[in-house]
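Q: Start with the shorter request: fold the first protein.
A: Done. Sequence, then structure:
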Amino acid sequence: MEDRASELAAERTRLERQRETEDQAIDLGAQRADLEQRLSENTEAILALFDAAGEVGIPAEQFARLVGVSRQSLYRWREVARRLRESRESR
């Protein structure tokens, strides 16, 4: 009888830990989705400012340093944004 009670207690503990882990995973997933959205919005804002910076004579290399990314990242982001825009327009 004690063995069965012990087994049930162990199973209950395992299930509680499993549920806690699942809840943490759900929370982390929601946080990640929020971060991805904020990162996307930040990237779009940087690209808009990048274009404005070029118009007022700020070199790409300097602008990249100011926002903390490489010049190559700026150009790659701009190319990806252009392709996405074209894809949306062609639908």
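Q: Next, the second protein, separately.
A: Sequence, then structure:
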Amino acid sequence: MFKQEIEKGAEFLDERAPGWEKKIKPDTLNLGSGCDCILGQVFGDYTKGWKKLKLDTVEKRADLGFTLTDAGPFSLLTREWLAYLANRAINPFKRAYKRWGG
């Protein structure tokens, strides 16, 4: 459901905050929480994160899988981020392959 957004968000963070995924604590990841969401865990707080990255609209943040545009299923968004990160950790070569145009 959010696969494309999450992939774009991860690529965005790869460019602007290399090593960001090492800061993610899977046991506390919760996209509905300002402290425990992706931006919260990487930058210390959701608001600090989007300001630092200049993502000044909810639509921009939602397009990258960091939030939803309405009060939707944050639990589903969280699960999909966890699935993405689990696959990324298992297969780091996929990320390198994409960087080289694969």
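Q: Describe the second briefly.
A: The chain has a mean pLDDT of 91. Helices lie at 3-16, 38-43, 46-52, 58-63, 74-90, 92-99.
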